[in-house]
Amino acid sequence: EIVVTQSPATLSVSPGERATLSCRASQSVGSNLAWYQQKPGQAPRLLIYGASTRATDIPARFSGSGSGTEFTLTISSLQSGDFAVYYCQQFNKWPPAFGQGTRLEN
Amino acid sequence: QVTLKESGPVLVKPTETLTLTCTVSGFSLGNVRMGVAWIRQPPGKALEWLAHIFSNDEKSYTTSLRRRLTISKDTSKSQVVLIVTNMDPVDTATYYCARTKIVPAAGTYYYGMDVWGQGTTVTVSS
Fold this sequence. Notes:
The complex is a heterodimer of chains A (106) and B (126). Chain A has no helices and eleven strands. Chain A has strands at 4-7, 10-12, 19-25, 33-38, 45-49, 53-54, 62-67, 70-75, 85-90, 97-98, 102-105. Chain A starts with a strand and ends with a strand. Chain B is an all-beta fold. Helix content of chain B is 0%, strand content 56%. Chain B is built from no helices and eleven strands. In chain B, the strands form two sheets. In chain B, strands 2, 4, 5, 6, 9, 10 and 11 form a seven-stranded mixed β-sheet that branches. Chain B has a four-stranded antiparallel β-sheet with strand order 1-3-8-7, with no helix packed on it. In chain B, strand 7 (69-74) and strand 8 (79-84) form a beta hairpin.
């Protein structure tokens, strides 16, 4: 079973700055990785799939990169609504697993 | 408009069996480019993927809970059911169902859970 590890657990960034979140898989997942955003009291929202393809209606300030075992979610110019918890999930080998999340705070 | 809605008991007793239903609209459970997953989230904790069912009825389960989970679907009713046996207080969580989008890409498929239900909170207590 593939283990997915996210870092850091908490990231403090100011509005307008860039945020870089990391996700590492215990073995190669190719490009089969998705990213989600979850705000308090809400269901998660798909941001990125296939490591770098933005989901429908996701702003261009969200970008995903990486392949194999190392992945990055970059949020350029943070807005107030971007402060949330972010999860990555690998789909290359089933069952798919989530990382433990990165809390993005102001 | 694509929607998913979870339903089931709010409170179950330890050792009881939990049955959750996900009713979908706006897409067919027979669509080969789509599946439905169940995910849960204990209070204040991370997401945990539980199970998935594809259009051809192929199923997948998380390893740690495999013996306790059963997923099934009724395409004509647009419903996906998750059964969790032998409930324990540690199973207290918000349970979500979500549509999995399946995108063909360069000899493989990419996946992403693109539409989620609002979630249903289940408490396990005597």
